[in-house]
Amino acid sequence: MQGTAKALPGAAHGPKVRARRESGLSIPTLWVTAAWRPRKERGSQPGTPGSEGGSGALSGKSFNSSRKGVPGGTGLGSRTQGGWGPGPGRVLLQVQAPGRGRGPRAGPAWEPGLRPLHPPALGSHARPLGYAQAPPRQIRLRSVPPPPARVYLPCRRRRSRRCWTRRPAPSHRPAARDWLSAVQSEGPERGRAFPAGAPEAGAPGCACAVRAAGLVPAELRSWAVVGQAWSVGSGSAAATGWGAACRMPEIRVTPLGAGQDVGRSCILVSIGGKNVMLDCGMHMGFNDDRRFPDFSYITRNGRLTDFLDCVIISHFHLDHCGALPYFSEMVGYDGPIYMTHPTQAICPILLEDYRKIAVDKKGEANFFTSQMIKDCMKKVVAVHLHQTVQVDDELEIKAYYAGHVLGAAMFQIKVGSESVVYTGDYNMTPDRHLGAAWIDKCRPNLLITESTYATTIRDSKRCRERDFLKKVHETVERGGKVLIPVFALGRAQELCILLETFWERVNLKAPIYFSTGLTEKANHYYKLFITWTNQKIRKTFVQRNMFEFKHIKAFDRAFADNPGPMVVFATPGMLHAGQSLQIFRKWAGNEKNMVIMPGYCVQGTVGHKILSGQRKLEMEGRQVLEVKMQVEYMSFSAHADAKGIMQLVGQAEPESVLLVHGEAKKMEFLKQKIEQEFRVNCYMPANGETVTLPTSPSIPVGISLGLLKREMAQGLLPSAKKPRLLHGTLIMKDSSFQLVSSEQALKELGLAEHQLRFTCRVHLHDSRKEQETAARVYSHLKSVLKDHCVQHLPDGSVTVESILIQAAAHSEDPGTKVLLVSWTYQDEELGSYLTSLLKKGLPQAPS
Amino acid sequence: MEPAEDWLVESLRLYQDFHAFDLSEATRVLEWIGDKGVFVAGYESRKKNEILHLTLPFRLSVKENQGLFPERDFKVRHGGFSDRPVFDLKHVPDTRLLVTSGLPGCYLQVWQVAEDSDVIQAVSTIAVHEKEGHLWPRVAIFSSVAPGILHGVRLSSLKVVDLESQKTMYTSGVSDSDELSSLQVLDAHTFAFCCTSGRLGLVDTRQKWAPSENLSPCPGSGGGRWCAEVGGRGRGPGPHIASLGSDGHLCLLDCRDLSHPESSVQCAVSTPSPAPELLRVTWAPGLDNCLAISGFDGTVQVYDVMSWDGMGGQAEPLFTHRGHVFLDGNGIDTAPLVTTHTWHPQKPRTLLSAASDASLHVWDWVDLRASC
C-alpha cells in the first residue's frame, strides 16, 4: 500500500538540492531531496498532510530545537495539537538562515508549521516552497532535529570592474578540477586564490550527474539525481572571508577594445579559472593612447604574465595583432602567444611596416622597435588547424578555419567541460582564393563572434569583381593606366586570376604587370600555406606557378613611362613607400589614369590621404603632388554578414552567443533573431563591460551500493528512456560527493535521527468509556486494515504500524470521545488514510 | 560556372550597375519607404518570417555614381518577426506604420517601426470578417491625415477602414463575388481594382458603387489569372492600365475608356506562369512608356509600349534581366522564380528584383538601343 516509496515533501517540483553553509563546521554536507517517483495525487484524500506540495521544506532545512509550542492553526477545528506521544521533546520547526558572517546565525524566530519555510535570508534566489498556499493545518514536530546542514557554499563573486584574478602559483593550485573559477578577495592585484587546504566548494546551478563510482552495473547508470541548487551566498561572502576561496562555475568576458572596421580587437575571457586574452589589436584611427587597448584593466602594477594564461591571435590584420609588441615588450608579457603558421609568418612583416610608418614617417617616439617585434614573435607558439594544443594541464585550444584572410582562424578554448569559441573575423562564403569558415558542432558554452557586418546584407563577391573589372576595363579602353597597390599576399593573387581570366575572355591586349618582389614573396608564402587556400588555388598552384600568367608579366621600372594603357600590381598596398608609390607619383597627374585601392590604409599613408579625398599631397622635399587620376576603393575584405553569423551559430550550436564590435542599439533585432532561432542567450557588452555566464558543469556523484540495492528492490529498473529518480542524502567527503541513504548519512555525520510526527484529533460520538472506544477502534481497524499490523496495547492505545491512536474523554461533552492520532511522517499516507477513515465514524457496534 | 562567368562578362555591357544580395529568406514584398529604404518580408508558412527595413547601398543613393563610395551593402535598419507568411506589405506614408496581409486571411497586421531601436513591433490587427480558406485580402493605403486601409478578398468585401479608429469608412456594398488580385489607390478618393478574372475597374469612394470597368478580359487571351497596374505616363495622355495575364498576354487600356483596350500583345514568355500569384506588371516611374513584367520564370522583362501596335501581336522585350538565373548563389539546380520586382523611384533605369532563392538584385540596365 502506501508508504513503500515516498515522495519526500518538496519533491513536487522536482528534486532540489539546497545548500547552506556555516562556517566553523568541518564537514561540508549537502542535503538532497531527489524524488524517487513523481508525487502521487494525494490531495484527493481529505486531510492529507502535505497536500499542495506544502510540507516541502522539510528536507534540506536546518532545524533547531529551541522553543515549545505550536501556535494554533486557523483551520480545521477537529485537529489536535498536544504534547504527547513518543519522542524526547517538542520541537519548534525552525529554519536556519544561511550564515553570512563568521559564525552560525541565530535562527530567526520562525513560527512553525504554517509559515512558508524559506527564510528570507535565502535571498532572491530562493523560492517559496508552498506552505503559503497550503491549507492551514497543524503539524507537530517531535524529537530532536539534526543540526543545521553544513555546507560550504559557493560564494557569488563580488563584481568589480577590475576583476582579473592573479594566476595562482602552481603549489597553491587545488587538486580538484576547476569548474569553478578563481576568486579574488581583496582586489585584483592581491588576489588570494586558492589557499592551501581550503575545501573545494559546492556549486550552485550544478547538475549532479550521478556516477555510480564503479559500484553499479552499467544499466543502473541512467539513474540520475539531478539537483538544482540555489545561490544562497551573498556577494560579500568572499570579501568577508570565510577562509575558503570558492570558485564560481562561470565564464566571464570583457571586451577591452573593439570598434568598427578598423577597431582594436581585444577580449578578455575567464573560463574555468583560466584567463585568456583574445587578439591584441590596435586602432588605426588614433595616434595617442587610444590606439592600444587599455591593458591596465588587467593589472595596474602587476606583471601581465601573472594574470594571463595565454594570448591568442586570430589573424594578421593590425586591428587584431597591432598592439602585440607593445603589449608583450613594453607593458610586459612573457606567457605564450598562440597563432597559426601563416599568421606567424605575415604578422611581423605587417608590424614592421606599421612601425616604419609610425616612427620613420610620422616621427613618433616611444614606439615599439624592430627588435621588440622580433622578441615578441619569439613568444609565439604556432598552431595547425584542428590541432588540439594543451596550454597547460587544464587549458586547451584548437584552431578552426575562418576564411577571411590567409591564416585566419577561429579558436576554441576549453577547460574541463567548459568551452568558448572565438571567431575573430571570418567569412562564410568561399571566394577565389580562400574557403569558407567552418567549425564542427562543438557546442561551446559561449560563442564570441564578430558582428562588424551583422546589420549588413553584403553585395555578392561577383558583383564586386564585376565592378573591379568594369573600372579597369573602362580605364584601359580610354587609354589610361591602372595602378593597383597590393600587399604581397592575399587579395593580389585573387585579382590576378580575375584579370587574367577577363583578359582572356574579352581578348584585351593591354599589358598587365606585377612588381617583382611580389612573385617571390607570394610564391614563398603560397608554398608554405597552400593548405590554407581553397581548392581552386591549390589546383592552379599544382598545375603551374602561381604567377606564370599568359597576360601578366613582370614589371620593370622603365615600363611605367611606356605610352598606352597598362595595369600594374605593385607593393606595398598602402602607397607609403616602394614601387607602388613611385608609380603613383608618375601617374597621378593624368586624369585618364586610375588607382584602385583594394584594402584599407593606415592613417598617415598616401593611400589613406587619397582615399579621404585629398587631391594635393605634400611629398618629400616640400614638393606638392596634384592627384588628377581617378581614385577608387574596392573593398574585397571578406567578413560574415548577418546571414553568415547565423550560419556559424547554427554550425557550432553554442549555449550562448556574444557579439563584439557592434552597436547594441542597432543589433537588438539580430539579438532577438539569434535568441529566437537558436533558443540561446545573446549578449552585446560594451568595451570594459563584463558579461558573466553561469555554467553548469557536471559533478560526479558516487552512489552507495546499499542505496542502490534498496532502490532497486522497490521497483522497476530505470532505462535510458525512462529514468527514475531516487532519494538519498548527498554528502561531501574528501572532496567528493556521495549519495547515501539517510541512515548512513546520519551515521557518517554522527547524528541522531529525528522523528517527525503528525498528530490529529478525531471526534467520535461515543458515550462509552475510553477503553471501550479504543477497543471498538481496534476491532474496526483490524477488520479494515487486514494487511497491516494492528495492535491493542495494554495501556489502551491502538497502534497500526507506527501510528498511535489513543482515546480520550472530551472535556466538555461526555457523549463525545476524542481520538488522538499520531503518525510518523514516513507513514504519512497511511496516517492520513486512517484519520479519514476514523472521521467517517465507527460501525455501529452490536449492543 | 562557365555560363555564369560569361554572363558576368556580358553584364559589363548590359548594366550600368549590378548588385546581388542574398537575403535570409525569399520575399514577395519590395515596398519602398522614401527612395532610400525598402521593406522585404518572408512568406514561408511554417516558420517565423522576418520583416526587414533595408536601406539601399550608399552608392545607389548618391547622385553621382563615382568612386570613393565603397558602401555597396544593404543595411538592416529595422527588423521584426511575423508569425504568419507575409504576402503583401504596405507602408503607410508619413508614418512609421506598416500593414501586412497573408494567410490566414482573417486579419491584417499593423506594425510599428521603432524610433529608438532597430525593432519592428506588431501593434494591432484589423479584422477581416470573412474567412476564405486560401484567399487573403489585398491591401492598399489611402494616405491622408487620417490614413485609410482599403482591403478586400472579393469585390463584395471591399472596404476602407480608418487606421486609427478602425471604423469602416466605405464599403462596396455589392454582392459581386469576383476574387481580387490587385488594388491600387490613385488619389484621395479613387482606386483601381483588378480581379483574377481580368475584370478591371476604377472606383470613386464618394459615390455609390458604380465603377467604370471592363467586364471581360483582354480579347485574344486564353484566360487564366490577371493582375494590373495603373501608370501615370502610359502611351498617350492620361493614365493607363497595364493588365497582365498568366499566359503572358498584356493589355493596355486607357483609364478613360476601359471597355476598349488600346493594344493587346503576347509577351515573350515561353510558358504560362507557374505561380500566377507572383505575376507582376509595373510601370517605370521615371521612363515614359516602359513597363516591367515578372512571375513567369527567373527573369524580369522590360518592355517599351510605344513599339506595340494594335492587337494580337508579339512583343519583344527591350531588356531581360537574367541575373537570377545565372547568379544563383545557393547552388540550386532549378532556376529560381522571380517573386517580385519594383522600379527605383528616382533612378529611371534601376530596378530591384527578388527571387524564390532569396536573392535580391539591384540593377541599372543599359538601353542598348541608345548606344546602337
Automatic annotation (TrEMBL), chain A:
InterPro entries: Beta_Casp, INTS11-like_MBL-fold, IntS11_C, MBL, Metallo-B-lactamas, RibonucZ/Hydroxyglut_hydro, RMMBL. One of its GO terms (molecular function) is hydrolase activity. Residues 70-88 have a biased composition (Gly residues). One of its GO terms (cellular component) is integrator complex. GO terms for biological process: RNA polymerase II transcription initiation surveillance; snRNA 3'-end processing; transcription elongation by RNA polymerase II. It comes from the Eukaryota. Its main location: cytoplasm. Residues 1-129 are annotated as: Disordered. The keyword Hydrolase applies. The keyword Aminoacyl-tRNA synthetase does not apply. Keywords: Cytoplasm, Hydrolase, Metal-binding, Nucleus, Zinc. It is found in: Cytoplasm; Nucleus. Pfam families: Beta-Casp, IntS11_C, Lactamase_B_6, RMMBL. Its cofactor is Zn(2+). Residues 492-610 form the Beta-Casp domain. Residues 263-480 form the Metallo-beta-lactamase domain. CDD domains: INTS11-like_MBL-fold (cd16291). Belongs to the metallo-beta-lactamase superfamily. RNA-metabolizing metallo-beta-lactamase-like family. INTS11 subfamily. Component of the Integrator complex, composed of core subunits INTS1, INTS2, INTS3, INTS4, INTS5, INTS6, INTS7, INTS8, INTS9/RC74, INTS10, INTS11/CPSF3L, INTS12, INTS13, INTS14 and INTS15. The core complex associates with protein phosphatase 2A subunits PPP2CA and PPP2R1A, to form the Integrator-PP2A (INTAC) complex. INTS11 is part of the RNA endonuclease subcomplex, composed of INTS4, INTS9, INTS11 and inositol hexakisphosphate (InsP6). Interacts with WDR73; interaction is required for the assembly of the RNA endonuclease subcomplex in the cytoplasm. This is Integrator complex subunit 11. The gene is INTS11.
TrEMBL record, chain B:
It comes from the Eukaryota. This is WD repeat domain 73. Transmembrane segments: none annotated. One of its GO terms (biological process) is cytoplasmic microtubule organization. InterPro entries: WD40/YVTN_repeat-like_dom_sf, WD40_repeat_dom_sf, WD40_rpt, Wdr73. It comes from Equus caballus (Horse). Gene3D superfamilies: YVTN repeat-like/Quinoprotein amine dehydrogenase.
